[in-house]
UniProtKB/TrEMBL annotation:
Belongs to the archaeal phosphopantothenate synthetase family. It comes from Halanaeroarchaeum sulfurireducens. The keyword Ligase applies. This is 4-phosphopantoate--beta-alanine ligase. Signal peptide: none annotated.
Length: 249
């Protein structure tokens, strides 16, 4: 990372790529995570590599929803752990959420490596290792969750999700916040709150919103969630990608 000059026009994107590579080397990120990163980069490039206004609205609604939750859980996969470990711990602390490792390509080694990595970044407790419950309706490893974690949660934040679990969680009646750079992907389209932004910008911004809303009354938080329009947020991200509206071309 030291080799990338900070004024390089693609600095952030190169640092991100580097973190994913390091994540693979450390046994945190899956090889498929490299492909997911490439896909994400392409969408981020088209979005102008910035948090567009509709994504900022989504991040504020996500913060309000997490603060309203009785039992919020942040789901962590190999890409999220490599990119924003400290930021996830900070968000969990700010909104009183649990962190739970949940992997598409689940192996005991990667589960352990990610839990250790989060703990090294200050997480007091990491769920996901017990895996003593299942999300009904999905047959792959991603179904395995902790009874006192995602299974019990009322609000779940899922970054870089695949569509299957997003739909299954919604069917269980959980409120889902999905972070994904692709507005056409099935998971943000299933989410109550789709956040079309890079996870490296989205997580710290949700935390910042949560801090500024910390002393807000419940009705104010409820109004923020009620005013959020998921369809519109998806549409605006797609517009930005298709037309570059709001960007200097
Ligand atoms: O660690 P595991 O085993 O749970 O595996 C995680 C991956 C990401 C490999 C797995 O969930 C997967 O294969 O996901 P997909 O189907 O490739 O979807 C990843 C989505 O995340 C795509 O729509 C990408 O555009 C998006 N994405 C990639 N990088 C980022 C991102 N969204 C937000 N921020 C990013 N940095």
């Amino acid at each position: 990372t030291e080799d990338i000059p900070s004024d390089h026009p693609r600095h952030d994107s190169l640092v991100t790529r580097h973190r994913i590579e390091a994540g693979v080397d450390a046994g945190i990120t899956s090889r498929q995570g490299l492909i997911a990163e490439g896909r994400g980069e392409a969408f981020d490039y088209l979005l102008g590599e910035e948090t567009i206004p509709s994504a900022d609205d989504a991040e504020r609604a996500a913060a309000a929803q997490l603060l309203l939750a009785e039992h919020p859980v942040l789901s962590v996969n190999g890409n999220a752990a490599a990119l924003v470990p400290e930021e996830l711990v900070e968000l969990a602390e700010t909104v009183g959420a649990d962190l739970e490792v949940n992997l598409f390509n689940r192996t005991p080694e990667r589960m352990e490596a990610i839990a250790d990595h989060l703990q090294a970044h200050g997480a007091p407790d990491v769920k996901g290792l017990d895996a003593d419950e299942r999300i009904p309706g999905i047959d792959h490893e991603r179904a395995r969750v902790d009874a006192d974690g995602i299974y019990d949660a009322d609000v779940v934040l899922v970054p870089l999700e695949d569509g299957d679990r997003a739909e299954a969680l919604a069917e269980m009646g959980k409120v889902e916040i999905v972070i994904d750079l692709n507005p056409l992907s099935r998971s943000p389209r299933t989410a109550a709150i789709p956040v079309i932004d890079n996870i490296i910008r989205a997580i710290p911004n949700i935390t910042a919103h949560a801090r500024s809303l910390e002393s807000a009354e419940r009705d104010e938080l409820e109004a923020i969630v009620a005013d959020f329009d998921a369809e519109r947020a998806l549409h605006e991200a797609e517009e930005r990608i298709r037309t570059g509206a709001g960007q200097e071309q």
